Amino acid sequence: MPGPADAESAPPLGLPLVFVADLEHPRLEPSDHHHLARVLRLRDGTPCTIADGLGRWRAAAFGPAPDPAGPVVAVPQAEPPLTVGFALLKGDRTELVVQKLTELGIDRIVPLVTERTIARPAPARAAKLVERLRRIAREACMQSRRARLPEVTVVTAFEEVVTEPGVALADPSGGPPTLSHPVLLVGPEGGWAPPERARAAHVVGLGPYVLRAETAAITGGALLAALRHGVVHP
Predict the structure, then answer these.
(1) What is the pLDDT of residues 19-61, one digit of tens each?
(2) What is the distance of C-alpha 199 from the center of its chain?
(3) Where do runs of H (alpha helix) occur along the chain?
(4) What region, left, alpha or beta, does residue 53 occupy, with left being phi > 0 and alpha being psi -120 to 50 degrees?
């Protein structure tokens, strides 16, 4: 079974984490400095962690320009990489799913348009939505002390993802999720249309009850992450 990333290389959980473009010459975005100084009430010189979003981080002292205080540490990519694609949801539920999948450690998040998807933004609105989802993922990484940002893709048609290696569709008729199918697709409230269901080479179940679409996406991500990190066993 693939093991978890080396816990000793992960950022410390007790220190605030913030993303910078350059770990050697770090500069904070104004919004990040405001959050740390005004919301978390950090004072200049307070220990914190800076990360580049690619899995590298180092200790630093807080300030307008954080002062690096330790070596650069690289967090290994956990294997296998995990993907959750889910049909776009109405209201702010899409944002909720992206936030929780990020906290769980999912590596790639794919907002999907399926045959029965109700929320179908026009291209301009879809681009703004993805920008907002990426910002939410970034904030969730900071909250959860995750040094590696997930990939949040553009809004994608179901047909473009279903043929990927390792894909499984969430469906009540399936067996338990496994790491041999680390790409999980979750349908909309109305479920998969018969032609979509017929294209699935593998399906997995998420429990005996009918789940809301957002609950199914988060549950599927949690199960895959727990399997990968050895929290539960197949």
Answers:
(1) 999 999 999 999 999 999 999 999 999 999 999 999 999 999 9
(2) 26
(3) 30-34, 93-104, 123-144, 158-161, 194-198, 213-228
(4) left
